[in-house]
Amino acid sequence: MTDEKINQKYQKKIKLFQKYNKYYYNLNEPIVSDNDFDLLKLEIIKLENKYKFLNSANSPSNSVGFKPSKVFKKVKHTVPMLSLGNAFDENDLINFEKKILNFLNEDKNFNIKYSAEPKIDGISASLIYEDGKFITGLSRGDGKEGEDITENLKTIKDIPYFIKSKNFPRKIDIRGEVFIQNSDFEKLKNKFANPRNAASGSLRQKDPKETKKIPLKFIAYTFGFEKGLKAASQSEFLNNLKEWGFKTNPLNRTLEKVKNLMNNYKEIEKKRGDIDFDIDGIVYKINDFRLQKRLGNVANAPRWAIAHKFSANSGISKIKNIEIQIGRTGALTPVAKINPVNIGGVVVSNATLHNEEEINRKDIRVGDTVLIERAGDVIPHVISVDKKMRIIDTKKFNFPHKCPSCGSKTIKDFNYTTRKEDAVRRCSSEGYECEKMSIEKIKHFVSKEAFNIEGFGKKIVENFWNLNLIKLPQDIFRLDFKKIESLDGWGKQSVANLKYSINLRKTISFERFIYALGIRHIGLENAKIISKNLKSLKNFIALSKKSNFDDLINIDGIGETQINSIKNFFRNNTNLNVLKSLNDLLKVKDAETPKVGGLLSNKTFMFTGKLSSMSRSEAKSLIEQNSGSIVSNVTKKLDYLIIGEKPTNRKIDAAKGLGVKILDQSSWLKMLK
Ligand code: IVH
């Protein structure tokens, strides 16, 4: 049998498994006996073990016998469990260091010490200790909210229950990785596809006795909140962890300079096969906690750490066809349909070609033999074309100048920052006028960071769209549930679940609402900034009636690109209709006013000239941490103008004219105590 045939057979079984599961869990009416159900599970796992390339998110080995959300109590993390940015080569590391030096306002001679820690590919967990006793253990969940898996974690021998050391903090949330050693996994091969799944599956068993049967290990590497921690650096903290009885990774190192990070990386990558647990890269953390604190976080990841991934796996295949996908903002992404190829255990049959420019630069054609690379969860992409293998009469690929979905002209924007034409070609129609864009816009609307409607996945959006049940976002809140109940694959219980999750989101925060609209250039961060400044949906809608956008112009972080994009949004009648309907159907909560009581609360600041002790970005984040805000124009609304070296005299004069207080750097820092 060919790999493709085996995969087909496997996917059929997965489909059947999903069906049984649905009847069992969602509808509470199993359609097969437990025995048949278990037999099917076993068949799937056996196939996965025999053919390592088989993989499916819906495999029983990814969800053995449990429905976590139903079983475990959800608990909010006091400090979110962040993820990490990725680096793939030396250049990425050089850039990482440069950005840090810029932020800290230091020159290239400043020596940064890093803690370099092999990145274990397991399941992260957070362990809360109070007065030396292990109280609560949580899974990562979505980073903000995890599941209470205390009892299961208690079965792991590496997790100390009582810690008596004198310097153990009064309260601390110790974080680390739960994993299974490869040698132990050997014995469990029949039940799980890989060690990570085995760890995850056993950690979330309903019955802790089941967890105990599997030899899970724990390695500690960071902390969330703490009261009374003495360590001043990551390396000191790692030593503390050992003193307190935790296991730490014996391959952790403290290093300086990118060159040494690279040497260490190569050395560990070579050893990878000999280590008894899976690692997928090296995590670098700025060692000094004071610097970590100054650097802070961006969106979901710390500025002070990065994961250097081990090199990707690659494989060779042939391009059968090039298809064009249309994204939410109209971007046309070419995707190569390739003969299925097994790359590092996963069958790959699509590879992104990024954009028109990439196709032209590499002269990629249908029929070409190509080298494909796949790294972790990143979409596989084409590295190079083997021109020697090219069949002589293949033609250059013509990128469509008309949108394949709606027929509108496709255009390339001019980028004013780079002074070049964009590499990406887009459909020129405005959002909902293009079918493919509309569908993608609705997928974005219901997605996790936007309305977060549980159970409303991409497939359901497509399905409901094709059945004319939804065409615009507001249709979600006017769904005909009776009709849905009569559809194939839906029943009373699943419709009730859907209705419940939709109703739950009829009240929503202003920032999520703005983000959900999917306005180009308004991502999560910008949506937050707009929400904080405009405060309510009413003020946002009011923009549509204004000829100027003064309310937005003064917001730091919102530039010309964003303002133009919002203007475009308001120019379109369908968008106005969407806004109006959603405003009628939903309750959009006003933005919470920032914590009062911050040292700089309700005060606005502006800088002119170079600061001597820190970068602009750090100064800005310091002001925001203390509840102040930054403006980018001298107006009556400005409270303080802070003057650095070589300030703009025009700004100082304007400030004097308006009676704005003028501060030098040291008086400003005194305000912050
Ligand atoms: S630090 C904000 N240290 O990698 C800092 N993470 O992509 C994040 N991981 O979810 C955690 N080894 O599961 C840290 N030595 C290490 C790690 C490590 C593995 C995992 C962890 C986290 C993911 C971040």
Question: What is the topological layout?
Answer:
Blueprint: H1 3-26, H2 34-50, H3 68-71, E1 74-76, E2 85-87, H4 90-104, E3 113-120, E4 123-130, E5 133-139, E6 145-147, H5 150-153, E7 171-180, H6 182-185, H7 195-203, H8 208-212, E8 216-227, H9 234-243, E9 253-256, H10 258-271, E10 279-286, H11 289-295, E11 297-298, E12 301-302, E13 305-309, E14 313-326, E15 332-343, E16 346-352, H12 356-362, E17 369-374, E18 381-385, E19 410-411, E20 414-415, E21 420-421, E22 426-427, H13 435-446, H14 458-466, H15 481-485, H16 492-504, E23 507-509, H17 510-516, H18 524-534, H19 537-542, H20 550-553, H21 560-571, H22 573-585, E24 587-589, E25 604-608, H23 616-625, E26 629-630, E27 640-643, H24 649-658, E28 661-664, H25 665-671
Parallel strand pairs: 2-13, 23-24, 25-26, 25-27, 27-28
Antiparallel strand pairs: 1-6, 3-9, 3-10, 4-5, 4-7, 7-8, 10-13, 11-12, 14-15, 14-17, 15-16, 17-18, 19-22, 20-21
Helix pairs in contact: 1-2, 17-18
Bound molecules: 2-(butylsulfanyl)adenosine.
